[in-house]
Amino acid sequence: GDSVTQTEGQVALSEEDFLTIHCNYSASGYPTLFWYVQYPGEGPQLLFRASRDKEKGSSRGFEATYDKGTTSFHLRKASVQESDSAVYYCALSDNYQLIWGSGTKLIIKP
Amino acid sequence: EAAVTQSPRNKVAVTGGKVTLSCNQTNNHNNMYWYRQDTGHGLRLIHYSYGAGSTEKGDIPDGYKASRPSQENFSLILELATPSQTSVYFCASGGGGPNTGQLYFGEGSKLTVL
User: Fold this and answer.
1) Which of residues 7-66 of A touch B (CB under 8 A)?
2) Residue pair B48/B32 in contact by the 8 Å Cβ criterion
3) B27, B92 in Cβ contact below 8 A?
4) Does the beta-carbon distance from B106 to A43 stay under 8 Å?
5) B51-106, pLDDT tens digit by residue?
């Protein structure tokens, strides 16, 4: 079946560091790919989505590019801030269901 | 602004008791979902619905029932609560077809079963 793999369970960075969170997927066809963010005490909220190969999604300084060749949708941000502390989920949809990755907790070191 | 409201936000129940978690959405979405979230397990789908009167089993339905009496409301029912059901529960709504996966979540209901 379809699956989403996030290799980092936790990432600890200092403010202004560059962020990469890796997301790889396994699915047939062209699933839609998503990044969700969950702040403490809140439900997840959609960061952005991408539906086609080479499409870039972006929001709030975060971006990811749909790469069918490497089956990846890695999340990047050039300069993280303390307010980015959250759990980030990669997910895919095949128009029938949403498959979630295990989540990556981003910690911003003081 | 899409809105999903859950109640209660916090609940303490006794083992063997009945618990009902309620969810209301004003997005006019056909699809609604109940997830639970535990440390180390991320989000796991319990039940979902495609519309009023329909409920479907998700990945971990055992010990839970669901009810969708209207487009707006979707309830999760624990007939005999157990300590293993202590968790944070999230309700979400979303469209279907090409918008499947674009979900709007409530703020969560924290359930503690003693």
Assistant:
1) 32, 34, 41-46, 49, 51
2) yes
3) no
4) yes
5) 999 999 999 999 999 999 999 999 999 999 999 999 999 999 998 777 778 999 99
